[in-house]
Amino acid sequence: MLELHTDRLDLRPLAEADWPLFLRLHREPETMRHLFDELPESEVRRRFEHRLPDWSPGAEHWLCLVMTDKASGRDVGVTGLRLLRPGHAECGYLLLPEWHGQGLGSESLRVIVDFASATDLTSLEATVTDGNTASCRVLEKCGFTLARRVPEAYRLGGRWHDDLIYSLELHG
């Protein structure tokens, strides 16, 4: 079983027992305000189940890792990546609101970058809804740069928003 570790976090693959965490992440207004309008529970469940199978390089589903705080033993969110095309993957993370602002997004993203660098991936990208300045700062701290803006790419809260596409070249 894939396990990754940082100074403060243990990361392990998503399991069926993590459904309450995954559902809560998708129900927290503070977590979702830059990501999605409220999704029906059936759609959240579909996304959860799509992430449950064992992951291997080349898999079409997300490698979804649960982040657990080493000090408290509490789950803080999820992080991971998914292959977009050979050599290129998208990465992302979701944190429960009580863990925002503590550097855990950056810490989890750095370990995902390290993991990706040890595979045959050559680049990573992350999509951020314009206005999500905290996520932009996390990506920039981890070496990502703004590659392009996609105007009015995403409808959220009844308004169109630009997507900001960040990228990072990996050097094995």
Write out key terms for the chains shown.
Aminopeptidase; 26% helix; 8-stranded mixed beta sheet; 5 helices; 172 residues; single chain; alpha+beta
Structure notes:
With 172 residues, this protein is of the alpha+beta class. It has a single domain, classed as Gcn5-related N-acetyltransferase (GNAT) (Aminopeptidase), CATH 3.40.630. It is built from five helices and eight strands. It has an eight-stranded mixed beta sheet with strand order 1-2-3-4-5-6-8-7, sandwiched between helices.
The fraction of residues in strands falls at: 35-45%
Low-pLDDT stretches are none
Q: Radius of gyration from the CA trace?
A: 15 Å
Mean pLDDT: 92
The computed structural class is alpha+beta
Q: How would you write the strand order of the largest sheet?
A: 1-2-3-4-5-6-8-7
Overall tally of structural domains: 1
Task: Count all strands and give the number.
Answer: 8
- Report how far apart the termini are: 22 Å
**Can you tell me the CATH class?**
Alpha Beta
CATH architecture term: 3-Layer(aba) Sandwich
User: What's the CATH topology name?
Assistant: Aminopeptidase
User: H/E element string?
Assistant: EEHHHEEEHEHEE
Major sheet characteristics: 8 strands, mixed
